TrEMBL record:
The keyword Electron transport applies. Pfam families: ETF. Heterodimeric electron transfer flavoprotein that accepts electrons from several mitochondrial dehydrogenases, including acyl-CoA dehydrogenases, glutaryl-CoA and sarcosine dehydrogenase. It transfers the electrons to the main mitochondrial respiratory chain via ETF-ubiquinone oxidoreductase. Required for normal mitochondrial fatty acid oxidation and normal amino acid metabolism. ETFB binds an AMP molecule that probably has a purely structural role. The keyword Electron transport applies. This is Electron transfer flavoprotein subunit beta. It is found in: Mitochondrion matrix. Belongs to the ETF beta-subunit/FixA family.
Length: 203
């Protein structure tokens, strides 16, 4: 596996108490702390671990969203991703962006970057859709492993342990593939200050 593409979404921080706008059109995002979607942090950690085990050569973090999405790409770079791709969507249009749009963008990037693996968080904590990974796999016509609890590289491809209702399921898949990270896959590392400084120089 040469290249791993990881999706990172900027969401309202999980510790923030969300308030609904007075006109009920959505939630208040102005002046609210945002951070990387927690499931995407797990996806980044897994990609970086693959690189550390010499199973991947390059980790590319991708975010689709307004200018502020650069923050979460920087976080991914500080965690160990090699470079970032920001697909900028103006804030006004971003509110209309659906998982189907993101999955088409990710699929196109996966082909352009010749990725061998796409790892996404299983869902974002803002819309809770849990659709992007599955739709990205469908657009690419690649095998998918969702709700990953454990990912192991084999000669034939990957052996994935999935979290399902009532237990765990093990599947084997060939690469290229699309995976979605579940909560117990790993514990994401904190970005250290030296790595945050290094991230500033990454493309």
């Amino acid at each position: 596996m040469a290249r791993v593409l990881v999706g990172v979404k900027r969401v309202i921080d999980y510790a923030v108490k969300v308030r609904v706008k007075p006109d009920k059109s959505g939630v208040v995002t102005q002046g609210v702390k945002h951070s990387m979607n927690p499931f995407d942090e797990i996806a980044v950690e897994e990609a970086v671990k693959l690189k550390e085990k010499k199973l991947a050569e390059e980790v590319i973090a991708v975010s689709v969203g307004p200018a502020q999405s650069q923050e979460v790409i920087r976080t991914a770079l500080a965690m160990g991703a090699d470079r970032g791709v920001h697909v900028e969507i103006p804030a006004a249009e971003y509110e209309l962006l659906q998982p189907i749009h993101v999955s088409k963008i990710l699929a196109k990037l996966a082909l352009d970057e010749k990725a061998d693996l796409v790892i996404l968080g299983k869902q974002a904590i803002d819309d809770d859709a849990n659709q992007t990974a599955q739709m990205t796999a469908a657009v690419l016509d690649w095998p998918q492993g969702t709700f990953c609890n454990k990912i192991e590289k084999t000669d034939a491809g990957l052996t994935i342990t999935r979290e399902i209702d009532g237990g765990l399921e093990t599947i084997k898949t060939k690469t290229p593939a699309v995976l979605s990270a579940d909560l117990r896959l790993n514990t994401p590392r904190y970005a250290t200050l030296p790595n945050i400084m290094k991230a500033k120089k990454k493309p």
